[in-house]
Structure formats: C-alpha cells, structure tokens
C-alpha cells in the first residue's frame, strides 16, 4: 500500500461487533439486510436509521431526530455509507464506515451525495475517521454483491483511454502519471485476482477494499476521478436517467466497460476475459436492459454528456451508427448468464 493511501482514510481489519462496542454512544445508519439478521448479536445503537432513500428532503428530515451521540456509523452497502456521510457532514460528528459488501467504493470517497429530482448531486465533503473491514461479515453477503465490486476497478480500463483522448484533444484535467499508473496497477491486480473474486475468498475481499482505498486517496489527491471514470460510467448514468432504473452499480458499469472498450478498440477481449473469469453478472438481460433501452441510451448519450457537463470521452469522438449499436448489443448478449448458476443470483 502506498504512503498516500495510508495517509488518507485508515483501513483496519476488525470484527464489527468489537468495533461498535468500543464506540460508546453512536448513531447507526444501516442497510437491511443485513441489519435485522445481525442486530441481536451487536451492541445497540443510540439511534438506528434504516438507510434506503438518498432523497435530499428525506435526508434533511433525518437531522431533526438526531440525539447527542459521539459518532455516526455507516453499516451496510452504498445507501448506508452515503446516509452516514450525510449525517456526519451535517452534524460534524466523527464518521466510522463498516461496509458489509464490497460492491461500492462509498466508504473511501469524500463526496457527500444526495438525490434531487432523480439526479445525484454532490453537496459537501467528509472523510471517515476510519473504515473497518470485517472480512467474515463481508463474505457472508450474497456473492453477486461482492463480485459487482470489480465494476469500479475495471472502469480504469475505459476511463484511462477516455482521459488520454481528452488530454490529446485539449480537454479536462492534465495527465497525471501517478494517477494513470495507479489505474494500470489496479487493472493488473484485477487480472491476478479475477479467480479469487469469482470465489469471493478472503484475498478478494481484502484486495477490493484496498483497491477502493487507493482509488479514494488518489481522487482526493488529484481532485478528479478521470483515471477510473469515463464513458462506461456515462453509459450507466444515461441509462439510469432514461429509464429511472437502478441496477447494481458495479454490474451496470461492467457492462459499460464491455461496450465502450469495443467502441474504443481498446482490448475488448481482455475485458471480456476478466468479466467471464470473475463471474460478475453483466449480461444485459440479467440487469433488466432491453435492446430498445440500450439503443435509446446510445441515442441520448451525446446530449446527456453535454447537458450534465461530463468529461470528454469516446462519446465525443465517435457516434456509433445503428448497425454498430446493434452489433454491440449482440456482443453483450453473448456474455454468460449467471443468475441460474451456483448461487450467483442470490442477493
Ligand atoms: Zn462507479
């Protein structure tokens, strides 16, 4: 682990119950599952917030009932970690994050996001005092949720290509060798860990947490996320905007990497190999995408990217014609289906 990552949010491995017991009085923002199944075995919070809704008005309303606790704990997936960030940011309390799945990087990012009119808006910044990784707890979650975590690592593949194209065209943040090197390093590590991710073994869980920590630290240092976020995320955002659907983030982003690496002519076979080996769910039908949604997503993408002021990417360089979009769809439909095999579907 680099010195930069260590200086950022400390990541410690510990048993969640022991950590909570040491906190004294705390407000817990929890996802359910897994909260109800675990509550009897864990120290009781002074206040329990069941996190599900990131709507700005709902979050503001939560502040009214906030008791005089020392810290706020996020316990669960993205919604719990994000709700805890919001409450900690607005109350100035210390923040401890205990992710119970490795499907999102929210524990290690400083941006506080809320949803307004169906769109995510970043309203402030807060850093967790520490992130606690309870490896056994994470491994007890459905395998599909943990495997989804590779989406935000694999996105370095297409994100770096887009960033290089942007720099060449005179757009966006200047090239940063350290950030680019981290993206490439994470992709090499993903290739080495793909089978461990498929098995969701202890190595995979530790590696994903460390990858998120380093991504968060680098975003914090350079002030942008160009090394790990580009057209694959824009595809995901445009699809969500178009349909109002919110498939699992990492899975939708993984599909985005698959299609955008093809448009970029950027080693699509290597991407496909990683998707297959890691057993992440990313077949469009299993994410709920229809061919019509897929086609319309590409149709709105250039305007969406412009309207949302997203970065320069392959979307600016190549507008695929109908035949190309159809070929992308057909290629995506050859990805293996996972939801009827070996428990990958449980969530
Ligand atoms: Zn992401």
Query: What is the CA-atom radius of gyration, in angstroms?
Result: 20 Å
* Relative strand content: 5-15%
Biggest sheet record: 6 strands, parallel
- Per CATH, the class of the largest domain reads Mainly Alpha
Number of strands: 8
What's the number of structural domains? 2
Fraction of residues in helix:
40-55%
> What fold name stands as the CATH topology of the largest domain?
Dehydroquinate synthase-like, alpha domain
- Assign the CATH architecture of the largest domain: Up-down Bundle
Secondary structural class: alpha/beta
- The SSE string, one letter per element, is HEHEHEHEHEEEEHHHHHHHHHHHH
Attached small molecules: zinc ion
What's the tally of helices? 17
Write the layout of secondary structure elements.
Layout: H1 3-7, E1 11-13, H2 16-21, E2 26-30, H3 35-38, E3 47-50, H4 56-64, E4 71-76, H5 78-91, E5 94-99, E6 111-116, E7 119-125, E8 130-133, H6 135-139, H7 143-147, H8 151-168, H9 177-199, H10 202-222, H11 231-243, H12 249-264, H13 268-278, H14 284-287, H15 291-307, H16 314-317, H17 322-332
Parallel strand pairs: 1-8, 2-3, 2-4, 4-5, 5-8
Antiparallel strand pairs: 6-7
Helix pairs in contact: 8-9, 8-12, 9-10, 9-13, 11-12, 11-15, 12-13, 12-17, 15-17
The structure holds zinc ion (ZN).
